[in-house]
Design brief:
By secondary structure, the protein is of the alpha+beta class. It is about 50% helix and about 20% strand.
Length: about 110
Amino acid sequence: MRRVNESLREVLSDALGELMDPRIGFVTITGVETSPDLRHARVFVSVLGSARKRDASLAGLQAAHGVLQARLARELKLKRTPQLTFEYDPTVERAARMTQLIDELAPDAD
């Protein structure tokens, strides 16, 4: 399943650059979790920008899921092409916040 998830992530990452939806901003696919029967795949994304930009990007991705699924079917020879759902991954945002807090607490090392 790890190889399937990684293959899905790679194909979807490549396909994002070709989407022309103006709602989709700077989006990075951070991970994919596919169900064992290959019917569903949860795609985790991080979005650079405000909460409004994040919501717009997720809506744009959900609207483009058919195009993305067709790309997966064309490039990957799977028994089934999973139904895609997109979810926001707050990990990158949390990491940036932790770095900011550490920088604020750490004494200047000049």
